[in-house]
Amino acid sequence: MRTSCLLFLCLLFSAVERSLASPSRLPSLPQFPSLAAFQQTRDVMKAVSESARLRGAVIGSFVADAAGMPVHWVYPKFKPELAEQLNERFKDKKEFCPESFNPFYKLPLGQQSGYGDQTVALLRALVEAGGWDRGVYCSHLQKMFGDGTKYDPSQLSSSTYSHESKTAQNLPVTGGWRHQSVKHFLQKIKETESAEEGKGTGTGLSPDAQMDGVAKLAPLVALYAGSPRMLQVVEECVRVTQEDQEAVDSARVGAKLLESLLMGEPIEAETVTKAVKSAGVSASMEAALLKSVDSVEEDHSSFAVREDVGISCKVPNNLTNSLHCLLKCAKGGDPSEAWVSAVRATLNSLGCNCSRLCFVGGCMGAVGGEESVPADWIEKTASITEIRALSEELLGLRDKVK
């Protein structure tokens, strides 16, 4: 610093001397960096580290899911009065709603949905096994969703419901809601009598073109991003509960996008397009997912409820919805504001918002890092202490699995 100051003074005195010798000439001062150069330097200094992005993806996914659990599966088409009441009372700030509007199940505030709890089981399994291990994952799925848990139907007032036909009695149930693919998995595991060995295949439900595989991506991609094994591991994981090609392909696309974000790429049309086209999916799925890019100028509130997109749990539409939300909410601004904006836009679309929240929260966390997830939201997430501890262990495994 002292040397720089001395150099500046020498240049200044030299310029003054020249001006005195030639009165008509103004002093020639040293050139300073442009404002653009200062901005570029500041941006570099503010760049999010890889470890912060990895933590942000995992933490962001879980926090977003917990924020949406009290308003999960509110479908205006089937429950118009419930949706109207929710919108009137909580407007566009529905996160961690103190009163449950969930028409299917009721859990204490801050807990995960069935999507989030599948991801908890996966995170625990990855850390315990030191990487992907089908048998360990099967074991943790059993522990999370099996007999004697908050998901055990014998503990609930009802275990079946179809919002497209007859309404079951005694809803919402007090406890968690087992997804059909999880029910099928548990039944198949009982038949093998050995979850620990994770026998063969055949535990996945077919067909099951649902968002579960995409929703649980955050810890898996945080561990395997940059590894040539990533897509193989993603497919193996999805097929444990979903023997469905559309579910697998949607997860492949989601994994490619999340990997790009974890490696420092921005959320923009080019990044999304590259993820879709490099995942090795069918032309029809590519076309469905790229509607998000083609319609990027459309407001997300109208795009999300289009007949060719929708707010159900089904893929690829559910993923298309999520991609559009990311493109609309990730443009510039403060990373924390962008994370909140994307999560609230997803919450406000209603329907199967928790599945989208897992993915959107993870992607936005990957861009902004763990600091982009609001501290007060983190504090309201019931399992955050365990999630943080496991996330640190997960990051420590990255060199091992490459």
Walkthrough of the structure:
With 402 residues, this protein is mainly α. The chain has a single domain (39-156, 171-194, 208-400), classed as ADP-ribosylation/Crystallin J1 (ADP-ribosylglycohydrolase fold, Orthogonal Bundle). The chain is built from 21 helices and two strands. The chain has helices at 2-21, 35-45, 50-68, 80-90, 114-129, 134-145, 180-192, 212-215, 217-224, 230-241, 245-262, 269-277, 283-289, 291-294, 300-303, 317-329, 335-349, 353-368, 375-379, 384-395, 398-401; strands at 105-106, 173-174. The two termini are 43 Å apart. Residues 1-42 have low confidence and may be disordered. Keywords: Signal. Residues 1-21 form the signal peptide. This is ADP-ribosylglycohydrolase. InterPro entries: ADP-ribosylglycohydrolase, Ribosyl_crysJ1, Ribosyl_crysJ1_sf.
